[in-house]
């Protein structure tokens, strides 16, 4: 079935790069997404990538997609305290009307 | 343009009570969704509505009912609340071109 997996926690030092990893099972996904959830709030789309792309860069964010290994990563350069949040990986799965979410990675920033 | 709005923000129910969570979007989206979020389990889809007049079960529909009242509104009803339904509930609607989902701020529900 459709499944998206990611580690639950990541801790990085302020100013370092953060890399959040995700694996998914559905090779027919059209879009893959990264969402950010700040405390007490809903999810907000950070960035997305088409399944026929390998990489997408958007300011401090770099998304890498390895379709062969079904692996997606999000790199945040120069991590700041405002980047503390839960990051969700997601894919469209077999139905474009549904998105399958991972369990989220909580990113914490050390001074 | 308010996006996706949800009411109430917080609710405490006793076991067996019923309630309806309201959701509305003003982006003219066709698809709307209800999720629950539990610690360490991410988001689980309860029900979704691909268009006005249609609803479908998601991953965890038991104990819930939904109504797609019109294109804007999608409500979630708990007929007889149970402690296992203590959770944060999110409503979302999606952009038809990119399937991006826009989320409401959530309803934190506690069932005692």
Name some characteristics of this structure.
heterodimer; A: 111 residues; mainly beta; six-stranded mixed β-sheet; five-stranded antiparallel β-sheet; globular; B: 112 residues; seven-stranded mixed β-sheet; four-stranded antiparallel β-sheet
Helix content, binned percent of chain B: under 10%
Residue ranges of chain B: pLDDT <50 for 5 or more in a row? Answer: none
* Most residues in contact: chain pair: A-B, 21 and 24 residues
How many helices of chain B in DSSP terms? 0
What composes the largest sheet of chain B? 7 strands, mixed
Outline of the structure:
The complex is a heterodimer of chains A (111) and B (112). Chain A is mainly β and 111 residues long.
What is the strand and helix layout of this fold?
The complex is a heterodimer of chains A (111) and B (112).
Chain A: E1 4-5, E2 9-13, E3 18-24, E4 31-37, E5 43-50, E6 55-58, E7 61-66, E8 71-76, E9 85-91, E10 100-101, E11 105-110
Parallel strand pairs in A: 2-11
Antiparallel strand pairs in A: 1-3, 3-8, 4-5, 4-9, 6-7, 7-8, 9-10, 9-11
Chain B: E1 4-7, E2 10-13, E3 19-25, E4 31-38, E5 42-49, E6 56-57, E7 64-68, E8 74-78, E9 87-94, E10 101-103, E11 107-111
């Amino acid at each position: 079935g459709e499944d998206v997996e990611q580690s639950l926690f990541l801790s990085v030092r302020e100013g370092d790069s953060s890399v959040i990893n995700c694996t998914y099972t559905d090779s027919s996904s059209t879009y893959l997404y990264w969402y950010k959830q700040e405390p007490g709030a809903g999810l907000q789309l950070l960035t997305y990538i088409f399944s026929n792309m390998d990489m997408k860069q958007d300011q401090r964010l770099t998304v890498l997609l390895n379709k062969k290994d079904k692996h997606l990563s999000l790199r945040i350069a120069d991590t700041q305290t405002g980047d503390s949040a839960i990051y969700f990986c997601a894919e469209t799965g077999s139905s474009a009307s549904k998105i399958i979410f991972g369990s989220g990675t909580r990113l914490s920033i050390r001074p | 343009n308010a996006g996706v709005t949800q009411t109430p923000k917080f609710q405490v129910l006793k076991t067996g009570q019923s309630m309806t969570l309201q959701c509305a979007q003003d982006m003219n989206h066709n698809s709307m969704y209800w999720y629950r979020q539990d610690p360490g389990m991410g988001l689980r889809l309860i029900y979704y509505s691909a268009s006005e007049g249609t609803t479908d079960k998601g991953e965890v529909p038991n104990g819930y009912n939904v109504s797609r009242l019109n294109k804007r509104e999608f409500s979630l009803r708990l007929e007889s609340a149970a402690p296992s339904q203590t959770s944060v509930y999110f409503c979302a609607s999606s952009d038809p071109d990119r399937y991006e989902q826009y989320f409401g701020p959530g309803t934190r529900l506690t069932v005692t």
